Amino acid sequence: MTARKRYRRGKGTTRNRQRKRQPRGIITPAVFLLSLTAAAGFSLNSQPFITSTSTSPFQKSSIIGKAVFAELCRNGDFIHTKKQKSTHGLVRSTQLHASRRASSELFYTDNDEVDVVDAPITSLNPSKKGNDSNPSCPNIVLVTGFESFNRELYMEAASQLPNSCKINIKVFADKDIRSAQLAAMSDTEEGMGINPEFADAVRHADAFVGSLIFDYDDVLAVKSLLPYVKGPRLLFESATEIMEFNRVGSFTMEKTGDGPSGPPPAVKAILSKFSSGKEEDKINGYLKMLKVGPDLLKFIPGEKAGDLRTWLEAYRYWNQGGKNNVKAMLQLLTQRCLVKKESSAAHVSDTVLPQLEITPDVGLLHPLLLMQSSGLPNQYFESPKKYLDWRLSPECVSLSSKKGFRLAPPTAPRVAVLLYRKHVISGLRYISDLITIIESQGLLPIPIFINGVEAHTIVRDLLTSKHEIEGVAHGTTVRDVTYQPSKAASVDAIVNTIGFPLVGGPAGSMEAGRNVAVAETLLTSMNVPYIVASPLLVQSIPQWKQSGVLGLQSVILYSLPELDGAIDTCVLGGLVGDKIALIPERVRKMTSRVNGWMNLRRTPPSERKITIMVYGFPPNVGAVGTAALLDVPNSLERLLKRLDKDGYDVGGFATDPDASGESLVAALAILSENSVITTGASKMQEAIDARIERAKKGDITTAATLARPGGGL
Q1: Given a cut of 70, is residue 239 above it in pLDDT?
Q2: Cis before 618 (ω within 30)
Q3: pLDDT tens for each residue of 575-603
Q4: Is the pLDDT at 369 greater than 80, yes or no?
Q5: CA distance 205 to 196
Q6: Helix H segments across 137-208?
Q7: CB atoms within 10 A of CB 441
Q8: How far apart, in whole angstroms, are the C-alpha atoms of residue 579 and residue 433?
Q9: Does the predicted TM-score (pTM) go above 0.85?
Q10: DSSP code, position 252
Q11: 140: part of which helix (H) or strand (E)?
Q12: pLDDT tens profile 98-143
């Protein structure tokens, strides 16, 4: 039986319990450019990697609020309600027209008992909101990955193409690629449970655009269908297994024969100029290539250089995001690759492209400056310093009074909030809601949006802290030469809502272990709480409440940030249909934790209360204080002595020559015995004293260190 056969879906099987096997790597805006440069002949020292972990499930509670319910109805999603059911438990939103109403916010609250369920396979029709199918127009399939919230934006962009570039487009999210029902019914080796509509669309596609395709089974499904695509295949920010399917004309990332694929030598020479001196900044450097790379390539002769330029220009539009840029990318793809011309070579260089709408790679924003019509900011700040100057100005206070916006006081703790730039460009409502709630909870946010790969440069170059400032003044801290004092702001905490590692985003660094070392240096210098808190982008809120954080999402939210040294994490919300919704209670919980960590820093060490958890499972079998290949007793001794050195009150343990970690573990084992637990707390000391007396009499069944003065405690 093959590995694939062993994981067939079925009742009670591992795969049916939402097995989320990960691909070899995750490709992000930066890493997929690394894939391009690798195809061009670059040598990378290491591959991006991803690990997996599991978390305890959260208790199922709460339900969807009326605002979210109305939002779902407007979008034509399927609703399962405990109050009204059709024959199959599904009610079309068109049948609930009376429940529709305008909503000014998208929050998940406790008002209505409504559960969201996946629509049956036959109901999936991503193209319904787009152009009517026209046999004479090219067919394009666009896969949004876990960015299903942009589905309508992409469809609207396609509908506004000029008549000469009209296309038939179908937009699919990751959840549309496969069907659990079909996979469970499949008994064949090749059966992947692929959604028939998705498979048919790809097989008849003239072009394919895919982004953020990570899930192992989704990757296999897409990979099996890509060879059917007749024309260009553009794959951005996805798993390595499908990145090699990138193809525009004569340019491809697929390796053929013994030689490398990719651009010609002259092009490689240009690409090689976009790396910086610092290893950890190299990935960010590749993103900068997008700004000038296509313009430089037009001076290099050859068909392959022209096709690579088309690919780079397409990705430049995609990376900048927004409806108009997506429209321009589709127009570029259609004009250069799908519409027949008498002279295709001349056509490539002569095509007049729509103007690229550029949003800064890094910027700061505030809800008070949002444009009412689009939800996008009408003003970005280029540095934390300029943002704070505005935020603390009379102009901001006056504007907040006019709009009834609650601002945190000027003396409030300042929290840097790292935001995902693509979500800002898309005008996602949760961004402004998040900042609004943080302000209302008495914290002064400094919201900085980034691409995701340059978070460490923000912390290093544009942020500082009281600890770092004092360290520089006393000569104990040396800032990096890249630090920009005229643009920087001092903060009391950092909250990363992107969830990826501080160095290099999900890509990390091209040098193994480099990202962890750099993150440790930066966070040690700052010495402020670093917390990862974000909405779930690949899980629905009902699924999270029922099963906890699963699969890839747990890696993004827990495993990778832990390597940086993130001290806390918090789920802020998740998907409701195709929308990202915040749970206000979770945001307030996050702000409470931030306040708690900052208050703890202001508490003298001698007044802090610390609990040390020691492994002890299963009970009553001598497992207390055991750990594979670890010396728990000696570790406890060293930990308590270090705490004493740092000013914590550990009693007389650190200075008592008879104190022993062995005695501590023995005492904990005694307190864990059922016979002791049932007698109550008042009898616990007596149980320990009795065991000490037995040790003094030479009882070999007790820890020898209990015979020391005071029992070694």
Answers
A1: yes
A2: yes
A3: 888 889 999 999 999 999 999 999 998 89
A4: yes
A5: 14
A6: 151-159, 180-185, 196-203
A7: 18
A8: 14
A9: no
A10: E
A11: strand 139-143
A12: 232 333 345 665 443 333 334 333 223 333 444 456 788 999 999 9
